[in-house]
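note to self — DONT lose this again. spent like an hour looking for the file last time. sequence + predicted structure for the chain T wanted, 146 res
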Amino acid sequence: MGTRRTARELVVQFFYQRDQSPAGTRVADEDFWGMVEASEPARKLAAEWIGGMRDKLPELDAEIRNYLENWSFDRLTLVDRNILRLALYEMHHRPDIPPVVSINEAVEIAKRFSTSDSGKFVNGILDRARQALARPARTRAGPGSD
């Protein structure tokens, strides 16, 4: 598994753990990193994405709510919610990653960590979000590779 896939999985796990913990007892970052095994490059990339996502969670959650049809935000599994958050973060704030890559990665992570229907569900939400983007879906807008 590549560094970016591992980093994405770490990000989803971090925010899942954060959401699972009561607000007053959230596990500190260093506690999380002490519990997971990953290469240093994957940890570094995951930590960068986690830092970038923290302040953007309200806007990411609002966008998820916007694309949900006949489903409430509170009914989302925590895994799916965090997969969607990460993919939307990448689509809006990581111009070096083509949106279709973010969607494909999110679908694969959903298939691995969530329910049997999650891949289709995540794909549907993210495809609607992709259609609203002002940038091309298949090319990166900056340096870097996936």
